[in-house]
Amino acid sequence: MRKITQKTAVFLLLLGAMLCRAQESPEIKRALVTARLQLIEGSKNYNPEAGLATYQQLAAQGNAEAMNGLGLLYSKGISVSLDEQQAINWLEKAGENGYAKAWYNLGLLYKEGVGVAQNYEKAISCFEKAAKGGYDRAWNTWGGMVMKGKGTAENFPLAISVFQQGADKGSSQCIYSLGYMHYKGFGYPQDYAQAIGLFEQAAQKNNAAAMYMLGLCYRNGYGVTIDTEKAKYWLNKSAVLGFKKSEIELSDPEAENAHPNQLKTVSKPIDEVITITETDAPDTFKKVKQAPIAQNISGNYTGTLLRYDFSGQNIISSTPLEINLQQDGKQLTGEWKEIAGDTAIFNARIQDDAIVFEDSRIDRTEHFYKDTINSYEFKDAKLQLLQTDESLFLAGNLQLYNIKEWENEKPMYLILEKKQDQTTVTQESEVLSKVVVYPNPFGSSFELSFDLTEETNVNASIYSMTGNQLYTTRWNNLEQGVQKMNISLNAPSGYYILRLNYGQQVKSSILIKQ
């Protein structure tokens, strides 16, 4: 259970008082105010025994606010011994006597496991009672648990309905939450324009989270033209209100969408791809339909994991991979290794419509978790196989689940390549071999060497991990024997793909530029 300080408990009491119904006489109101002040350690009125006595007396007389206060005191062990059952009894009694805030307080205790055993099912029931009982702040908490699937099955339509009821009552947090669902495409078609309209409404109500999201939209060009000044304006306004994420974003020199495809990203419907025909990384996200996997796909693969913004219009990260797959019937096991990243062991089962992972997770960093490691569950993949003369490709979508946030990660596209088994290639058929890049990592240039078994023409190309060609040259009529070439590459630090073509055959290598 989480430790709660006396200061926190008294804050809940004060908050409850500010939001309660005007049901007491002036004398009772004064008595409650005095009792709350007597519970504040360090206050000149500090007298916890007297404060407790006032709550007990008024609660016995049927005052629901005092019942709520007693429930909180028992839940924290302030002036009384910590007593879970007494805390529950008094908060329930306060709620049943019309004090909706008490249901909300009890829901928070169940949600956080404070003074009572953590129980999401009971928490969500309490938040629903609080919202329907007239405590408007509970609409957003209730809707958030439904949206995340805490204490109930994830239910986007119900979450939207709950948030909308709260928004209709003027809740800026519910208005923000509706924008959040449009922004990420949860329960709605993903739409930055709809999200921004709602964020603006909530921001006008001084909602710090909405201001933060507006700052992100302007910084990254999500639904609006990139405008760094407007981004700073909204992020600074949010930071002044104490929203820590805004402070972190302001301190980051690089935006999430550091290399946008356009200055203004407009959300568009993404059609499902029935048949993949290309092995290059797509500039925009492709939603792939799983094709039946009728052959054994065991082997060692290299490739790339592309991560897009929620609209799928921009690549925001590209991660080189090495993956070892072992297939036994419909069961897959493997090792997932991210170059300069984490390594994970995974298990999965091949189904007709997807590859579904079982109890497999990985720790990763990304823009919003640069200073911490965040854990993700492998959820499922939808892949298709492409066979060439030299390689077997697996390409399609991967879905990760953000454990901390209780929600699906951004759209991802996976490209994996397994070289044809070299035992099937005769010595005579392999014209080009022994490809060596030195040094690797390299600075501005590197030496490429390879062997030829006969005179031939060789094409060399270098691609970014997103598939953009950065360099190409052709060497004609190279003689048999060892070849040495010096290549300069004017490009940022990172990972690149070198491809050597001779006739119908291709050799690929990973380049690392410092």
UniProtKB/TrEMBL annotation:
InterPro entries: Secre_tail (IPR026444), Sel1-like (IPR006597), Sel1_AlgK (IPR050767), TPR-like_helical_dom_sf (IPR011990). SUPFAM superfamilies: HCP-like. Residues 437-507 form the Secretion system C-terminal sorting domain. It comes from the Bacteria. Keywords: Signal. This is Secretion system C-terminal sorting domain-containing protein. Residues 1-22 form the signal peptide.
